[in-house]
Amino acid sequence: xxxxxxxxxxxxxxxxxxxxxxxxxxxxxxxxxxxxxxxxxxxxxxxxxxxxxxxxxxxxxxxxxxxxxxxxxxxxxxxxxxxxxxxxxxxxxxxxxxxxxxxxxxxxxxxxxxxxxxxxxxxxxxxxxxxxxxxxxxxxxxxxxxxxxxxxxxxxxxxxxxxxxxxxxxxxxxxxxxxxxxxxxxxxxxxxxxxxxxxxxxxxxxxxxx
Length: 210
What we know:
Blueprint: H1 3-21, H2 25-37, H3 39-61, H4 64-70, H5 72-98, H6 102-109, H7 114-126, H8 129-141, H9 147-172, H10 175-183, H11 185-204
Helix pairs in contact: 1-8, 1-9, 2-3, 2-9, 2-11, 3-7, 3-8, 3-9, 4-8, 5-7, 5-11
């Protein structure tokens, strides 16, 4: 790999780190799941999120993401799906916040299998139009590069994304944090509901030029 290709790859990776590691609905979902379900639950969700990123990364590496990014109708559909899913997560968190009974709270917190958590993470990133544009920007800032280099960058970034989510899952599943969540569950869930709803509204009124 030539020096310019290495520099292009590093630029793409750096751009991806900023996009994937920044606080947002995905990282909040990992934190919320880890506090309620422990590290294993957070990892399952994080794996789904990382897989969703990898799918869009592969699409971007093949050049199709640029076509999607330029298609207003496609971005609008993704935007509506993403906003709807964030509103769904807000509704689920709101339901949990309204439950007073400890037994009910525990049941609700553990009613999703790891497979369901994986699919939740996958859906969250697949229905996010910003994920498409983030990949387009990352690969474009890297100068486009050769197909092999782009594919290598996508694979590395997908693994890095999972490592980031794994870090969030580990941090938020430590005993003191989980104990605090257990004591203040309703407050946490109300905050999660408000955040997901706000993120849904923001995405609903988001424009690709932003």
